[in-house]
Specification:
Elements: H1 2-11, H2 14-17, H3 20-52, E1 55-56, E2 59-63, H4 64-79, E3 85-90, E4 96-100, H5 101-117, E5 124-131, E6 135-141, H6 149-152, H7 176-186, E7 190-196, E8 200-208, E9 225-226
Parallel strand pairs: 3-5
Antiparallel strand pairs: 1-9, 2-4, 5-6, 6-8, 7-8
Length: 229
């Protein structure tokens, strides 16, 4: 926070604005420190939610296709500069679900983020949806480094990170997939992984239509929060 504050103060000085190299340097400092701070906050918040083991879900009838399309547009800003793309195939006939919008967004965001991070070349990500009488399905697939069978059985554990060998730019705390599984299960759903080394990974999620949860509070209007106390 101190570094961001100092760099912002420096950028506000008139003499800095005429020196492009210094502007770039201070802007880079802000960007790097913001990312570091974001990861730290993300870790604290997710640990608080997940370790408590109690979720106060605020379920609402939600157009999840619309949410997915909004997320795709956001992640394209990260993927396209790397020469990649995100393909969508939203074939679910029923896509109005009772979900907690905040947690559903975070679930899909984590999968998009992993698909991007673990694609060392141009990220090629595909998101698909379909439905049947039981519920709604969504899958996120990449053509990245893949996950060995040995590690697939551990990837949903808290703080577990798959070794990436020479892929040194992958950052994180091993919380993303733990969060995905925990909150998908909290919605009465399931998550499965299909992956092969050097060929990519596909994560497939299922959300039932008739989900009921005793920890749900449908009267609240605020964003989802972990139950405390």
């Amino acid at each position: 926070i101190s570094t961001i504050s100092i760099a912002t103060e420096m950028l506000s000085k008139p003499e800095i604005s005429v020196d492009p190299a210094r502007v770039i340097r201070y802007a880079s400092m802000i960007y790097d420190e913001n990312n570091r701070l974001r990861l730290m906050v993300e870790r604290v918040l997710q640990m608080a939610v997940l370790e408590k083991g109690k979720y106060k879900l605020r379920l609402r009838d939600t157009d999840v296709h619309e949410l997915i399309k909004e997320l795709v547009q956001r992640f394209l800003l990260t993927v396209r500069p790397r020469g990649g793309n995100i393909c969508i195939s939203l074939k679910a006939e029923k896509y109005i679900l009772k979900v907690d919008k905040i947690h559903f967004n975070n679930i899909i965001s984590n999968l998009f983020d992993n698909a991007n991070k673990y694609s060392p070349e141009k990220p090629h990500i595909t998101v698909k949806t379909w439905s049947d009488d039981k519920g709604f399905y969504v899958s996120v697939e990449d053509k990245g480094i893949g996950i060995s069978v040995e590690h697939q059985k551990h990837i949903f554990r808290n703080l577990y990170r798959v070794p990436t060998r020479n892929l040194h730019n992958v950052k994180g705390f091993g919380l993303g997939l733990y969060y995905v599984k925990t909150l998908t299960n909290a919605h009465g759903g399931t998550v499965n992984v299909f992956s092969e080394l050097r060929k990519g990974s596909r994560f497939e999620l299922f959300f039932p239509f008739n989900f009921q949860n005793s920890t749900t509070n449908e009267q609240d209007t605020e964003e989802s929060q972990p139950t405390t106390g």
